[in-house]
Amino acid sequence: MDSQTQNTSLQRLQNVEKRIVRVLELAAGVMDELSNPTGPRKEFVNNHCREFMQMIKDIQVALREEIKSACDYRPFEKCDYSSRIANEICCKKLDYVVLQLDQMKQTIDDYRSSTL
Fold first, then answer.
1. 63, 17 contact by CB (below 8 A)
2. Which of 12, 38, 55, 81 is the most exposed place for a label (fewest CB within 10 A)?
């Protein structure tokens, strides 16, 4: 990652941190309102809960994007474990077959050069 990308990534993560602080403030506000001796104000609680849920969703999206951008390309990221393992096994088998073919070609070449 170059320094420009790191800076923008850090800035995005700082924004996420600010959102997390705001979410905690919203939760504390609702808790205070619920503990109000005269009873909670319904509109206040509804607005805070709505904002809380929206910010949680925004935080999840932002973190998911940051994690994706920080990771190497993964062609099987949406596949399950067995699909990835099956693919890796197939690749190892292909490597072995290519090695065997190379050895056969070498044997044929050696045979041809010895018969001349």
1. no
2. 38
